[in-house]
Amino acid sequence: MKKYGVNELRRMYLDYFEKQGHLKMKSFSLVPQNDNSVLIINAGMTPLKPYFTGQEIPPRRRVCTCQKCIRTGDIENIGKTARHGTFFEMLGNFSFGDYFKKEAIHWSWEFLTKEIGLDENRLFPSVFQDDDEAWNIWHEQEGVPADHIFRFGREDNFWEHGSGPCGPCSEIYYDRGEKFGCGKPGCTVGCDCDRYMEVWNNVFTQFNNDGHGNYTELVQKNIDTGMGLERLAVAVQDVDSIFDVDTLAALTAHVGEITGVPYKSDPKADVSIRIITDHIRSVTFMISDGIMPSNNGRGYILRRLLRRAARHGRILGVKGTFLAKLSDTVIDTSKDGYPELDEKRAMILAVITEEENKFNKTIDTGLSLLNDEMDELAKSGKTVLAGADAFRLYDTYGFPRDLTEEILEEKGYTLDEKGFDEAMQNQKVTARSARKTTNYMGKEATAYDDIDASLTTKFVGYGCTENESKVVVLVSKNDQDEKDYGALAETMEENETGAVLTDETVFYATMGGQEGDFGEIVSNHGVFKVLETRKLQGGKVAHVGFVESGSISVGDTVTLKVNKENRESTCCNHSATHLLQKALRTVLGSHVEQAGSLNNADRLRFDFTHFQAMTAEELKKVEEIVNEKIREALPVITEEMDIESAKKKGAMALFGEKYGASVRVVSMGDFSMELCGGTHVKNTSEIAVFKILSESGVAAGVRRIEAITASNVMAYYQAMEEEYKNTAAIIKATPAQLAARLNALQNEMKALQAENERLKSEIAKNTAGNILNNVTVLNGISVLIANVPDSDANALRTLGDNLKDQLPDSLIVLASAVDDKVMLMATATDSAIAKGAHAGNVIKGIAAIVGGGGGGRPNMAQAGGKDASAIPAALEKALEIAKEQIK
Fold first, then answer.
1. Which class for 826: exposed (0-12), middle (13-18), buried (19 or more C-beta within 10 A)?
2. Which of 491, 499, 694, 851 sits 20 to 30 Å CA-CA off 351?
3. Is the pLDDT reported for residue 441 higher than 90?
4. Closest CA to 16 of 200, 169, 143
5. Gap between the Cα atoms of 179 and 193, Å rounded
6. Distances 290 to 287, 306, 339, 657 between C-alpha atoms, Å
7. Distance separating alpha carbons of residues 550 and 526, to the nearest angstrom
8. Residue 504: beta bridge partners?
9. 3-state DSSP call for residue 173?
10. Beta strand 690-699 with 702-709: parallel, antiparallel or unpaired?
């Protein structure tokens, strides 16, 4: 048997099923589309759920895919065994009401035994215990011996997900040989050891579960197949684990080169090597789909994986950054099946390097904070670190739990695991409650789901803003009421709210960053006011609004009229966005990728990957380039072609966008070329002028530019001129005198501030002399605790510094209240710290008394509060803490 590589196996599988009449589809993005039930794509069939549920009509009744997937449910166990990883590729052939068991079983057997050449004597199918049909097909049609077919129960061989479509499974196991077995008597298929490995799973979706355990036969039976590509490669290449197949072996070898620790030379190091190898694959693919590091959602998964890999690099002795080098290997070994990795290489590597640099800084901070916590444990005679404190290190500073436990163990301490788990669970509950989860697709069910899936709306509005069409569906629904399911209607009367669907429309629906049109739909009997245009699943467009007058009915011939002024302004902003993206790549570099956008009639908003604030010079240059291209009056040309032809021409595609067989390519002269389904100007000169309003950060590695075009620029400058005049009037100057008058006022204010600070300093010195009588001496350390009314935070710090000058061996705690706002400040000299004083812990211990919180370092700390009446009690407590610290 030939030992095919991973990339060969992927091609062989897809080509084989293409010969069996399947449409070969590219992997969907890892970011779910219109599905709130999952955070990230975790199975081959997940992106195809609309086809299984009937919400959308599939492009063909037979399709096959190789879907990139990520699962992080058992992330803490990744690396400890060689069985699992977070990232995997799932091969799948699917039937939507076409073929069923007979064909699915035959093709799976033929592919494994004839196409790949696996020994059929080492293959063992399993079936659901009651599925005699599948058993007979295996035995009689494919000739598999009876003793090679296993019957298993519902837990192993019946797939269901709550209510809805479900059915029995038939899995195929591969016998890897005795060396992978457990050696126990009776070890066979179904044993937990590594000998019999599942490589293929056919799910026969033939029943509907009503949610109460009642099953009925489906009219349209489906096939859902799943086969892990890496697992298949393990069998074909006859290697120990997924980490030994050719593409992953290249990665483990590269990790060994960087760390100087070859894979399989040290069992403990192997755990770290497997973690790094697996996680960098997930990280690379996630970033290629536009996921950016953040502290929530998908971004948090990415950040956690990347930082875990970076930390294990440190364990193996790596100094500095190294993950981008490994990502290069991921790209090189995977671009055969995922060319987008190569296209996004510069951006992927830049994001990884930036995030790894951040982690290298935060982990040092985490180590310092953990050392402080251990110092406190030592002083208090405790041996267990509170779970909440460890979780704070983990959640705020990205400091891994296992590293915390490892360091604690080295110093003779342990972690309160229960407390940590409780803090983690609280966070998960919060995250789950923030995620919208309802039905199979994770969204609220509405009357829109009841619309015939075969209905579609053709958009005819690229060249016009008015057309005639027929009303095919009416949905009566109050969108302001989340509980209103709505209903399909034959007629809608005056003032009734809902949506109108037509055969064709000139209204552009909100998508691709462009806000939808508004306008009106007119029939012989009434007028429907369109407030927004919404894209529904299955290519349908809903015109959402209300009946302004008369009535409207299904079957009416209507005239659809888009608000032209709004459309034209939106086109200007959308076309300017294309020019902006190219200008940004020209000025900042090829790592710039679109990370989001919003184009409406008022302004444009463009999010892009970049890792620092743009300089004034960079912004100026970008703005100049865009306006230059506007003045050049570039023709805006739109062509339709297949996706591969578009990419060959150099058209830029967007992150995670789902493209059909035919795409629109929008070119602006020779300057810009992008895949885009939106509406645009015919010539860049129509944009007239472009003005950047702001540039800011919205997430780690993502910047945002907001800008305006055309008549909005004139309105912007008119408003500025009016504000300019009003400002001048306030300070009794003319607009021409404004700058000089403001400079004079600023100089006057600086002089007053200087005088104010001088007076404060003088008061502080006088106050210091008055409160020195409050000194208590503890073990040679002067402890001064005092209430200093009507002093702000700056005054307390200045007073503290003056007191330390007069008391070189001291711990000073001061409190004050200004307008009922309490301020606490503590400071300690080095000699006082050496004898146990800790300003941060003093403040931490008294802040709650005044209704506040805070802390700080051993030498300096401050806090705020709300209860001025509690200041005496707080200061009394401060003296108690000082006596405990200084002994």
1. buried
2. 694
3. no
4. 200
5. 11
6. 5, 15, 15, 10
7. 4
8. 458
9. strand
10. antiparallel
- The total number of residues shown for the chain amounts to 887
How many Å separate Cα 238 from the centre of its chain?
37
Q: Judge contact between 450 and 53, C-beta under 8 A.
A: no
* CA distance linking residue 517 with residue 356, whole number of Å: 43
3-state secondary structure of 98: coil
DSSP 639-704: EEEEHHHHHHHTPBPPTT----SEEEEEEETTTEEEE--S---SBGGGG--EEEEEEEEEETTEEE
Output the pLDDT for position 648: 83
Residue (of 475, 689, 464, 469) closest to 572 by Cα position: 689
What's the pLDDT tens digit per position in 806-827? 899 999 999 999 888 999 999 9
What is d(CA 352, CA 307) in angstroms, rounded to the nearest whole number? 10
Count Cα atoms within 13 angstroms, Cβ side, for 496: 22
Q: Is the pTM of this model over 0.70?
A: yes
CA neighbor of 348 nearest in space, from 605, 645, 655, 648:
655
What's the rounded Cα separation, in Å, for the pair 354 and 302?
Answer: 13
User: How many Å apart are CA 283 and CA 300, to the nearest integer?
Assistant: 11
CA-based nearest residue to 442, from 42, 67, 64: 42
Tell me how far apart the alpha carbons of residues 401 and 394 are, in angstroms, rounded to a whole number: 6
3-state secondary structure of 364: helix
d(CA 164, CA 210): 6
CB 665 within 8 A of CB 689: no
Q: One-letter amino acid identity for 118? A: L
| Lowest-pLDDT range of 47-51, 290-294, 362-366 | 362-366
Helix axes 323-334, 345-380, angle to 10 degrees: 140
Structure confidence at residue 23 (pLDDT): 95
Q: Over the Cα atoms of the chain, what is R_g?
A: 34
Helix axes 417-434, 387-397, angle to 10 degrees: 50
Amino acid making up residue 744: A
Which helix (H) or strand (E) is 493 found in, with range? strand 491-493
Pairing assessment for the beta strands 164-175 and 123-128 based on DSSP bridges: antiparallel
Q: Which one is predicted more confidently, 837 or 657?
A: 837
Report how far Cα 467 is from the mean position of its chain's Cα atoms.
40
Does residue 84 contact residue 117 with C-beta atoms inside 8 Å?
no
pLDDT digit string (tens) for 394-404? 776 667 676 78
Contact 242, 82 (CB under 8 A): yes
Strand partners for 673 = 667
Please report which helix (H) or strand (E) contains residue 874, including its range.
Answer: helix 871-885
Q: In angstroms, what CA-CA distances link 260 with 256, 269, 272, 277, 529? A: 5, 11, 13, 15, 69
Q: Please report which confidence band the pLDDT of residue 766 belongs to, taking 50, 70 and 90 as the band edges.
A: low
Angle at 412 between CA 407 and CA 413, to 5 degrees: 70
Query: Strands, DSSP E only, in 683-809?
Result: 690-699, 702-709, 775-778, 781-787
Q: What pLDDT score was predicted for residue 142?
A: 95
Lookup: tokens for 4: 């095919």
Query: How is residue 639 written in tokens?
Result: 């062509």
Q: How many other β-carbons are positioned within 10 Å of the β-carbon of residue 721? A: 11
Contact call for residues 122 and 178 (beta carbons, < 8 A): no
542-585 residue pLDDT tens: 999 999 999 999 999 999 999 999 999 999 999 999 999 999 99
Tokens of 187: 């070890």
321-368 pLDDT, tens digit per residue, is: 999 999 999 999 999 999 999 989 999 999 999 999 988 887 777 778
- Pick from 815, 758, 751, 818: nearest CA to 788: 815
Element (H, E) at 168: strand 164-175
pLDDT number for residue 760: 64
* Matching residue, tokens 């300017």: 576
- Note the pLDDT of residue 348: 94
